[in-house]
Amino acid sequence: MLFPTLSWNGPPEEPPRAVEMGIPDSVTLAALESGRESPWLNRFDTVVIDPGHGGRDPGAVGANGSRESDRNLEMALLVRDLLRVRDPGLEVLMTRESDEYVSLGSRTRLANSAMADLFVSIHCNAATNRSARGIETYFLSTARTDDARAVEMLENSVAGLDEVEAAPGDPLAFLLADMAQNIYQDRSSDLAMTIQRSLASRWTESPDRGVKQAGFYVLRGALMPSVLIEVGFISNPAEEQVLNSLDFRLGTAEAIVDAILSFSED
Questions:
Q1: Tell me, what's the pLDDT at 78?
Q2: 50 phi, psi to nearest 5 deg
Q3: Among 65, 188, 212, 256, which residue has the fewest nearby CB atoms (within 10 Å)?
Q4: Is 113 within the bounds of a domain?
């Protein structure tokens, strides 16, 4: 397995964020127990965009010093702005809008509290093999390949310092997360395929690494379809340069927006 070297000193202490569910957990539980989706998913009106890493967690750092967290944020902000222009009635929320540290668990808690219809996490990939390149999109499930397990370990590396899922003593939240994973797996897979196709058709010169699955902590607990996108390898000097291009970041944001709006119509 291939693992990149990260420049990371660990996150600072994060004050707990109070999150109030708009719909009681008991109502959500009743829906999930019956095999139905979360009760707020009957109309498409809210999307949460998650720029991976941030603050003292820069993610992977390229050979020329590019920080993954910066590229993630730039693309996510473009996705936000394009969605707001193309669908003014859609509420688009961000887990962060600046270079700040946000714990993995609080990202999906934000999506749940907002009763979001989709959770989309944007990242750049990395590997010690500097020739690795291409685009891939993940949904939450057990990793099946060494490459997927390597990416899973990379993205989950901060989790030991996070309150990842529910607070201790909150078994209902854990139960909801497990049930949601099973119920939303097919739709998350469909969303991942829609996004991957859109990105691959936009960037035909970049290898299409396909849709994969892995146990990303940032997707656990999301009570809606959720995916994690790896838009390119910042560890590859050529792709690092491409990621630094505004044209690439804008084109990538447009492809993601195309996919989200297409998925919302299904």
A1: 98
A2: -120, 105
A3: 65
A4: yes
